[in-house]
């Protein structure tokens, strides 16, 4: 995996980015889309309609998935973290190579990661409830 502390990647193709983006105001999503949804891998969501549908699914289930969208052999599951005002401020994630992070493993880890995000959010003063 090519992840490095301090590195950057587009929000629309990472699980942590999408976990944050899903709970940002509409204006923020519009800005991201306007900047362009350049494909990073063959699996990157680069269509506005598909991205918006993915963000709606993320809000409904409480966690996001990066299925090889940022790195070709990596899957990631992430959940938002909310502060005491209820605003999304960060995200936490679990990543692995596709050989170990299977689709079934992603489905199993998603709710666990979402619960961890809610516990951290509550420590920060959020009163957010599970999706």
TrEMBL record:
Source organism, top-level taxon: Bacteria
One Gene Ontology biological process: negative regulation of DNA-templated transcription
Gene3D superfamilies given in the database record: 3.30.450.40
InterPro entries registered for this protein in UniProt: GAF-like_dom_sf, HTH_MetabolicPath_Reg, Tscrpt_reg_IclR_C
GO molecular function per UniProt: DNA binding; DNA-binding transcription factor activity
Domain IclR-ED: 1-126
Protein name: IclR-ED domain-containing protein
Species of origin: Kitasatospora aureofaciens
Record lineage: Bacteria, Bacillati, Actinomycetota, Actinomycetes, Kitasatosporales
């Amino acid at each position: 995996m090519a992840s490095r502390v301090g590195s950057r990647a587009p929000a629309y193709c990472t699980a942590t980015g999408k976990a944050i983006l899903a709970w940002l105001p509409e204006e923020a999503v519009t800005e991201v889309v306007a900047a362009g949804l350049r494909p990073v891998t063959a699996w990157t969501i680069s269509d506005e309609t598909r991205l918006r549908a993915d963000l709606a699914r993320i809000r409904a289930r409480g966690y996001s998935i990066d299925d090889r969208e940022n790195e070709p052999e990596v899957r990631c599951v992430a959940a938002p973290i909310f502060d005491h005002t209820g605003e999304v401020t960060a995200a936490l994630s679990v990543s692995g190579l596709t050989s170990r992070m299977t689709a079934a493993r992603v489905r199993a880890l998603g709710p666990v990661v979402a619960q961890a995000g809610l516990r951290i959010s509550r420590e920060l003063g959020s009163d957010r409830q599970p999706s």
